[in-house]
C-alpha cells in the first residue's frame, strides 16, 4: 500500500491572488511536495462571478507553467460553502473556464461545505471529489429557481454520474445529497475534510506517480503531465461535453428555438381546450 505523502510544516503561500469586489482572495499553498492547494475565499459564499472565474483560470495557469507537475486541489476558505453557484452569464463570459476540465494533471475537489448549482458543477469538472462527511449538501437546484440547464452543463453530469437514476433525481427533483448519499450514488469518490484525508486519497490512487518523472512510452524522465498525455486523455474521455462547449452558441439557439415552439404549442393547446369547453357547455343546454 502506498504511504500518504508527507505533510509539510507551515509554509508561506506559493502565491495569492486578490478579489477586490469581495475583499476576498485565492491562495495557493503546497501542503505536501507537488500537491497544490487552491483555497478560494470570496465572501459570503464563493459565488462564481466573472472575477472569480478569471482568477481561478489565472491560478491554474500559474501552477501549470511555474511549478513541477503534481496534483491540483481546490477547496474553500469559507467553512459553510465550497461554492454556492454561479451566474451563467458570468461563467460563459469567461472563455476557456469550463474547458479547464482538461487540466494536464490530476485535479481533486476537496468539498468542505455546500456545493449548490454551479458550485457542484465546478466540483464535477474535477477528476475526483472528496466531500466533508460532517457538513454540507450537494444539490443541482436549477429546477428550484426556474433556470434550465444548458447543454454543456447538463452533459458533464450525464457523462460522469454512474447511473441514469441519479442523474434524473439530481436534475428533475433537485435532490439534496448528504455525504453518505453522495458516496453511495457515486457523485463523490471518497469522504474527507482535511489534509490527512486528502493526502491519503492521493496516495491510494497513486496520483503523484501519474505525474512524476518516471520512464515510460515517452522515454526516461518524461511525465504524462508535461508531455500533454494526461490532458489528451481527458479530452477523449469528455469529448461530448467539449463539443457542446465549442458549440455553446448553437446550443443556446436550439434552447431558444425550443422555447418558441413550446410557446406556440401551448397557444394551440389552449385554443383546443377552449373549443372543447364550448362544445361541453353547448351539450349541457
What can you see in these coordinates?
The protein is of the alpha/beta class and 285 residues long. 41% of the residues lie in helices and 17% in strands. It has helices at 50-66, 88-92, 118-124, 151-160, 164-172, 179-184, 195-204, 229-237, 239-246, 248-283, and strands at residues 15-19, 24-32, 35-41, 71-76, 81-83, 107-111, 114-116, 128-131, 138-139, 176-177, 190-191. Strands 1-2-3-4-6-8-11 form a seven-stranded mixed sheet, with helices on both faces. Strand 2 (24-32) and strand 3 form a beta hairpin. Helix 4 packs antiparallel against helix 9. It starts with 14 loop residues before the first strand and ends with a helix. The model is unreliable at 213-221 (pLDDT under 50).
Could you give a quick summary of the protein structure above?
This protein is 41% helix and 17% strand.
Assembly state: single chain
Binned strand content = 15-25%
Summed up, the helix count is 10
Radius of gyration: 22 Å
- Mean pLDDT level: 85
Poorly predicted runs are 213-221
Strand order of the largest sheet: 1-2-3-4-6-8-11
- Count of DSSP E strands? 11
Shape: elongated
In N-to-C order, the SSE pattern is EEEHEEHEEHEEHHEHEHHHH
What's the N-to-C terminus distance? Answer: 85 Å
The major pleated sheet works out as:
7 strands, mixed
**Helix/strand/pairing class, anyone?**
alpha/beta
Helix content: 40-55%
Amino acid at each position: 500500500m502506498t504511504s500518504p505523502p508527507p505533510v509539510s510544516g507551515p509554509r508561506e503561500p506559493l502565491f495569492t491572488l486578490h478579489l477586490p469586489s469581495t475583499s476576498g482572495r485565492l491562495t495557493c499553498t503546497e501542503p505536501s511536495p507537488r500537491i497544490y492547494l487552491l483555497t478560494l475565499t470570496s465572501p459570503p459564499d464563493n459565488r462564481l462571478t466573472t472575477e472569480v472565474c478569471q482568477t481561478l483560470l489565472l491560478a491554474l495557469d500559474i501552477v501549470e507553467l511555474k511549478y513541477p507537475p503534481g496534483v491540483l486541489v481546490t477547496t474553500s476558505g469559507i467553512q459553510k460553502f465550497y461554492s454556492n453557484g454561479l451566474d451563467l452569464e458570468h461563467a460563459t463570459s469567461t472563455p476557456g473556464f469550463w474547458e479547464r476540465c482538461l487540466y494536464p494533471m490530476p485535479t481533486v475537489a476537496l468539498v468542505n461545505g455546500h456545493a449548490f448549482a454551479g458550485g457542484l458543477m465546478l466540483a464535477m469538472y474535477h477528476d475526483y471529489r472528496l466531500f466533508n462527511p460532517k457538513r454540507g449538501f450537494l444539490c443541482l437546484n436549477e429546477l428550484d429557481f426556474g433556470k434550465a440547464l444548458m447543454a454543456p452543463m447538463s452533459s458533464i453530469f450525464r457523462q460522469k454520474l454512474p447511473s441514469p437514476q441519479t442523474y434524473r433525481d439530481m436534475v428533475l427533483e433537485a435532490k439534496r445529497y448528504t455525504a453518505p448519499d453522495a458516496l453511495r450514488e457515486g457523485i463523490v469518490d471518497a469522504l474527507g475534510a482535511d489534509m490527512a484525508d486528502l493526502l491519503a486519497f492521493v496516495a491510494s490512487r497513486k496520483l503523484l506517480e501519474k505525474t512524476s518523472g518516471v520512464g515510460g512510452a515517452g522515454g526516461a524522465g518524461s511525465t504524462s503531465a508535461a508531455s500533454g498525455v494526461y490532458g489528451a486523455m481527458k479530452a477523449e474521455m469528455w469529448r461530448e461535453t467539449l463539443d457542446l462547449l465549442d458549440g455553446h452558441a448553437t446550443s443556446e439557439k436550439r434552447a431558444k428555438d425550443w422555447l418558441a415552439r413550446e410557446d406556440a404549442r401551448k397557444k394551440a393547446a389552449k385554443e383546443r381546450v377552449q373549443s372543447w369547453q364550448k362544445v361541453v357547455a353547448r351539450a349541457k343546454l
